[in-house]
Amino acid sequence: MTVEVPRETVTLTHIAALARLGHALSDETRTRILLTLREAPAYPSDLADALGVSRQVMSNQLACLRGCGLVESVPDGRRVWYRLADQRLAPALGDLLGLVLAVDPGCCGPECTCA
Q1: How would you write the chain as a 3-class SS string?
Q2: Is the dihedral of CA 68, 18, 14, 89 positive or negative?
Q3: Superkingdom, according to UniProt (predicted)?
Q4: What confidence score (pLDDT) does residue 105 get?
């Protein structure tokens, strides 16, 4: 017996959203930011210190992630902290991480020979 699973209609909006996520994940620093923010919101300076990057780099990467619609800034007095823009992103990142590790953790890394 075959069970049919209903599929969501894929639109250009869906494709653009996945492309933005792919762009965000194509940079190691942005990926590390997203994985860190799935644990808890953070101030840019704390993220920069935790990830070992300059505050300028952090500012640029957060601006990119904000532009992709993946993070949002929250004013806090004279400071601003960041969180994932959608609560569903945290488990989705965890699922993606599990999937990538299950497929081949060595593929497409610095010493990849698949290309």
Answers
A1: CCCCCCCCCCCHHHHHHHHHHHHHHCCHHHHHHHHHHCCCCECHHHHHHHHCCCHHHHHHHHHHHHHCCCEEEEEECCEEEEEECCCCHHHHHHHHHHHHHHHCCCCCCCCCCCC
A2: negative
A3: Bacteria
A4: 63
Tokens representing 64 are: 């990119």
**Crossing angle for the helix pair 28-37 and 44-51, to the nearest 10 degrees:** 120
Q: So what's the pLDDT on residue 1?
A: 59
pLDDT along the chain (115 residues), means of 10: 70 90 94 97 98 97 96 96 96 88 67 66
Distance CA 82, CA 93 (A): 17
Which numeric CATH code is attached to 15-97? 1.10.10.10
pLDDT for 3:
60
- Amino acid at site 24: A
Domain boundaries, the chain: 15-97
| Residues 71/90, Cβ–Cβ less than 8 Å | no
